[in-house]
Amino acid sequence: MRAIVLTAHGGPEVLRISRAPDPIAGPEDVLVEVRAASVNRADLAQRQGHYPQPGPAPAHEIPGLDFAGTVCAVGPRALRHRVGDRVFGLLAGGGYAEKVAVHERMAMPTPPALSDEQAAALPEAYLTAFDALFAQAGLRPGEAVLVHAIGSGVGTAALQLGRWAGATVYGTARSADKCRRAEAMGAAFAVDMAAPGADFAAAVSAANAGRGVDVVLDLVGAGYLARNLAALAPRGRMVTLATVGGRHAELDLGVVMAKRVRLTGSGLRGRGIEEKIALSQAFERQALPAFGPPDGAVPARLWPVVDRVLPWTEAAEAHRVLEAGEAFGKVVLRVGG
Ligand SMILES: NC(=O)c1ccc[n+]([C@@H]2O[C@H](COP(=O)([O-])OP(=O)(O)OC[C@H]3O[C@@H](n4cnc5c(N)ncnc54)[C@H](OP(=O)(O)O)[C@@H]3O)[C@@H](O)[C@H]2O)c1
After folding, report:
1. Does 267 contact ligand 1 (Cβ within 6 A)?
2. What's the average model confidence in pLDDT over 200-204?
């Protein structure tokens, strides 16, 4: 098969389409002809040599945490899908390739309303947000959630899932344009952190009669920690998912105790297969039926936010776009051709 292989670690120019061995499907796996894969922040870190795929180093390092395509073979003990079925799902790596082999329970049926490009935008972004909001933070209807980097792939997914679950969603981004776009998607408001004097903690407190938010989904990191604590309501929960804004920060344990808040961290890629299967299947059961074109329905429907689709020959451009912060939502690669 052909795949986008990292010829070295470095800038977007190290992404090259070359030959790689076909993946070997195990007895419970399905082999999928990939039509689309999306680009995630983690791919940029992997390309730079900072975030290797878990497990033994593969002979060909192929980035890509998600895929969408068509089943082309099934293992002898795989019963869930047939050849020709459209499926999509999560990977620990290897998605920028013409073929992937995945456990049959990691492959979710692609809803007919979604194109392969749209389905490829879902797994990493939506499963991360779904797990963080509901399994980690226990977000409930009527609560308020603050989503940082709300214009990111994970951020736009969290905005949709939060609204779908009946929560009030606030956000932050580093541009007025991304803030307005998040508000157009249903955020109560988003704070432009590039504006002088921007203070999301004061803004969400003022909006909630001084109470703050029940949940903070932190896609930024250390630089926001003190203000996150200030923004949390008593018994609030914060889930840390990223360190783009720094890893090390001072923590006021007095505030942690006084507000009785819960601070949690979460990572998806390094989890074992059973945990990933459980998450994929929970998402498939609970959230996937809610996907459909936006039509003003209440509760809100879910629909992937795709900034742009590029042919995989333009993978370097796709990485550049994400790195430059130019995307709102997901950048997707059309694989093959
Ligand atoms: N822990 C996990 O399991 C997990 C899983 C998936 C993703 N993530 C993390 O979640 C984040 C979003 O992932 P993605 O793939 O959706 O990424 P993405 O679409 O590339 O978005 C990255 C976001 O990071 C923001 N950002 C970058 N540097 C920043 C800084 N110094 N200060 C504030 N914001 C900054 C950008 O904000 P602006 O739009 O405001 O410029 C951008 O929206 C990434 O950091 C990624 O590593 C974690």
Report:
1. yes
2. 97
